[in-house]
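Q: A small favour: would you put together sequence and structure tokens for a protein?
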Amino acid sequence: PASQPLVKDDLQGKILDYLNWHIHENIRVSQVATHLGYNEKYLSTLFTAMTGENIKQYILVQKMEIAKRQLTIAANMGFSDSHNFSTAFKKIVGMSPREYRKEYRE
């Protein structure tokens, strides 16, 4: 039927919205499926058919795009490498970036 593509487009939009809103989290395909009320395997298969890539790959690509932007920001702030940044971070914040991330998560 003519309405079928609209349903798929709507579902694809809902999936993408959910992923984009939760991209900074450890997203699992099962979470997306549960949130949208679909079976995980069905949702994964449908997403791959609609976009040409699987959900896990999409999430990874989006996270890497964010990481690239953040690395660019660090470089623009004058940090030439990760060691330089980590040393300055620890000197000012009092803990390493890794320690800070761990504490921030908890």
Summary: The helical segments are 3-21, 29-36, 40-51, 55-76, 82-93, 97-105. Residues 1-6 have pLDDT under 50 and may be disordered. Residues 43 and 49 are 10 Å apart (CA to CA). The radius of gyration is 19 Å.
